[in-house]
């Protein structure tokens, strides 16, 4: 642990701080703003500014840095998805904007591949849209999308996963070609697709009308996200936002999706930092932390440990543990539960359907990597 008052502000409230070996997850707070971001946010405290103007200027600055046509700061990537869906249905018609989430008289179907249904597709429904699957669990063809597009189709949604692309899903290139031939926009969830740098914003550069990114992955506040797209689409998305609700006095669905001025300036600083930082040093530091977690776990009977070599996206490397309960006397869930019950608690990543535990360095403070490895090893008597 780095300081004697670690987590004290939470303890004063009667809450238990944890060591975050899970990574950048919303449930644990998402991110720790980088020093440059905190400094920018502090500077923003000194004056007030009309947020419609700040959104416009901040978006222009971010779009230029990322090399996309237009950008807009939202309250997280999930907010960007909801605003984008609303924009597809209501466009720039103020009557329709104020009618949502009632979609009577509007195109309100968002097409999504059956193979790409996921936890966060719920964000697409919150403005009143209806998700319509196409393809099958076994795969998706061009014909599946061509047949699915109908008179009520507002957009086609695409989940981008550069780390592990699905060979049986319809490609983004095919999706864009087919959808655009029928005048239908394409939305892309690319929340963590920020490294290598040519990946950042790439889906819009390939022709998608919109993509979202979670700015928390770059050291911005957890509650900030980025919407990228063509200028007309981003203009319509902005009409749904909380600043338009107040500045134009048009009641769009985005009113609860508030972002403060400090966060907007912080998001600009986070993008600037990400586009100019030494990523080789960042990756080397992350790899070292992961190896510090891995080293104490090697040679334990019944425990197989492996270092991931992935560097794509926001969360590079990582350590995977597979536990043979017949040898160790503990199941994977036993290990997870005992780590959470410790002092301080350690949270690890266990995805539904996985048999192993994944450790990530993203949320670890200085020295916590060694604590994680040693605490897990101690559970097995090492």
CATH architecture of the largest domain: 3-Layer(aba) Sandwich
Could you spell the SSE succession in H and E letters?
Answer: HEHHEHHEEHEHEHEEHHHHEEHHEEH
Percent of residues in beta strands? Answer: 5-15%
What shape does the CA trace take? globular
Question: Could you say how many structural domains there are in total?
Answer: 2
Number of helices: 15
Q: Give the distance, in angstroms, between the N- and C-terminal Cα atoms.
A: 21 Å
Main beta-sheet annotation: 7 strands, mixed
Structural class: alpha/beta
State Rg: 22 Å
CATH superfamily of the largest domain: Type I PLP-dependent aspartate aminotransferase-like (Major domain)
By CATH, the topology of the largest domain is Aspartate Aminotransferase, domain 2
Main sheet: strand order: 2-8-7-6-5-3-4
Give the overall pLDDT as a whole number.
96
Oligomer: single chain
Identify the CATH class of the largest domain: Alpha Beta
- Quick one: how many beta strands? 12
Helical proportion, percent range: 25-40%
Low-confidence runs of at least 5 consecutive residues: none
């Amino acid at each position: 642990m780095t300081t004697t008052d670690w987590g004290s502000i939470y303890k004063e409230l009667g809450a238990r701080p944890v060591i975050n070996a899970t990574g950048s997850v919303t449930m644990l707070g998402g991110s720790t703003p980088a020093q440059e971001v905190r400094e920018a946010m502090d500077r923003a405290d000194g004056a007030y500014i009309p947020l419609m103007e700040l959104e416009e200027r901040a978006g222009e600055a971010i779009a230029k840095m990322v090399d996309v046509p237009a950008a807009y700061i939202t309250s997280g990537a999930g907010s960007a998805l909801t605003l984008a869906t609303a924009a597809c249905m209501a466009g720039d018609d103020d009557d329709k904007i104020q009618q949502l989430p009632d979609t009577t008289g509007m195109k309100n179907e968002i097409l999504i591949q059956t193979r790409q249904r996921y936890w966060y597709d719920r964000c697409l429904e919150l403005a009143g849209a209806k998700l319509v699957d196409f393809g099958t669990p076994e795969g998706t063809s061009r014909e599946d999308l061509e047949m699915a597009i109908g008179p009520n189709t507002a957009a086609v949604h695409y989940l981008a996963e550069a780390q592990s692309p699905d060979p049986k899903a319809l490609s983004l290139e095919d999706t864009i070609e087919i959808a655009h031939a029928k005048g239908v926009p394409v939305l892309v969830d690319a929340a963590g697709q920020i490294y290598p740098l040519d990946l950042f914003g790439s889906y819009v550069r390939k022709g998608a009308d919109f993509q979202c990114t979670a700015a928390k992955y770059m050291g911005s506040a957890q509650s900030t996200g980025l919407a990228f797209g063509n200028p007309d689409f981003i203009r319509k998305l902005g009409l749904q936002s909380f600043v338009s609700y107040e500045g134009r006095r048009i009641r769009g669905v985005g009113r609860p999706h508030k972002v403060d001025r400090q966060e907007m300036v912080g998001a600009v600083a986070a993008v600037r930092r990400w586009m100019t930082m030494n990523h080789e040093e960042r990756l080397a530091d992350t790899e070292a932390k992961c190896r510090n977690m891995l080293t104490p776990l090697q040679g334990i009977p019944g425990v197989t440990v492996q270092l991931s070599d992935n560097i794509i996206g926001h969360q590079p490397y990582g350590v995977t543990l597979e536990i043979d309960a017949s040898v160790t006397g503990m199941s994977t869930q036993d290990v997870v539960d005992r780590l959470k019950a410790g002092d301080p608690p350690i949270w690890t990543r266990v995805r539904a359907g996985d048999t192993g535990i994944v450790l990530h360095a993203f949320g670890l403070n200085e020295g916590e990597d060694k604590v994680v490895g040693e605490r897990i090893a101690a559970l097995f008597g090492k």
